[in-house]
Structure formats: structure tokens, C-alpha cells
Amino acid sequence: MTTLQLLGVLLLTAASAKGQSYHLGRCPESTVQEDFNAAKYMGTWYEIEKLPAWFQTGRCAQATYSLLSDGTVSVRNENILSDGTVASIQGTARVIDPSQPANLGVSFFKGVPDAPYMVVSTDYQSYALVYSCSDYFGLFYIDFAWILARSRALTDDIINQLHDKLTAIGVDVNRLKVSNQTACDGYSQ
């Protein structure tokens, strides 16, 4: 085993303890929403399900997107922590390739490379399916997935359809965690 392979195995083992989705190999191919309309996507989305992520630990998670005058998108993620305080982070998203406007890069910290943000599917009014995947050294990849909704709940039929889309990409939907959207009354961004 090479040093890089050993490093990859150690990182995978350590990350697994935190519930993160690390995998050996390269990111699977994913399609994105055809004819994506960023203006229709703007507004608030509530997190319904997600792959575990070390940086998302609260409840009542939501994301608000707003078009900026320079064509980029303001991204504000918020949730309520276990002590009742609201945690938020502000970032910016930009289209990576104008021929695929549903394939964005998002950044929350200056000097840090953009993270992929792929809108796989959305009807703009009720649901959105977002996938993100980053390759590391050709040895392993880290992926994230979110099922989002315009309300704090989605029907089982829609969730099952989105699970099918994730499965087609190669995502193990058994790893998805239902997001806690209870006791959120009075909370808004």
C-alpha cells in the first residue's frame, strides 16, 4: 500500500466515525436539471433529508438563496443548535459552466475552493434534490446530498422519487438521515 493509499484509508476511517460520506474511488457521474432557471430557484428551502455532514448538526435547517446584481447567488444557511441558538453562515454560489446553469460552485470562506452544488432535480415550487461530490487524490471522494422542500415536509411519493434519482447516481439512500423540522414555529431567517 502506498503512502497516499494509507492516508486515504486513515482519513476514511476517521471520517466514518463522524458519519460523513467518504468513499474509495472517484465521484459518480451525475446529471443536473435541464433548462435550470435560477430565478425560480431563489427563496427559502427547508432540509428534509441529507447525507450526514459534520457541519450540519442542528434542527430546523433551511437555506435561502438570492440573486445578486453580478449574477452570483447569495447563500444563507441556518439551523437551530441544541442550546436553542440560531447558527448561520453566509456564502456565495456561482455558475461553473454557463451551458449547465444547475451546476454551481459554492463558497463560504474566502481563499477556499468552491464546493460543487449540483441541482439534480427541482420543480421549483415544492422540492429540490441537490448533490455535491469532491474527488481527493483519485483515491477517495466525499459526497453530500440534500432533499429540500419549500415547506417543512414532503410527501412520501416525492421522497421516494428523489431516492430513486439518488440511487441512479450511485448514492446509498439508506445513509440518508431525516432532518428534524419539528418545533420550528416562530423561527425564520
From TrEMBL:
Example of a GO cellular component annotation carried by this entry: cytoplasm
Protein name per its UniProtKB record: Apolipoprotein D
Entry keyword tRNA processing: no
Phylogenetic placement of the source organism: Eukaryota, Metazoa, Chordata, Craniata, Vertebrata
Source superkingdom: Eukaryota
Domain Lipocalin/cytosolic fatty-acid binding: start-end pairs: 37-180
Organism: Menidia menidia (Atlantic silverside)
Keyword Glycoprotein included in the entry's annotation: yes
Gene3D superfamilies to which the protein is assigned, alphabetical: 2.40.128.20
InterPro entries named among the record's database cross-references: ApoD_vertbrte, ApolipopD, Calycin, Lipocalin_ApoD, Lipocalin_CS, Lipocln_cytosolic_FA-bd_dom
SUPFAM superfamilies for this protein: Lipocalins (SSF50814)
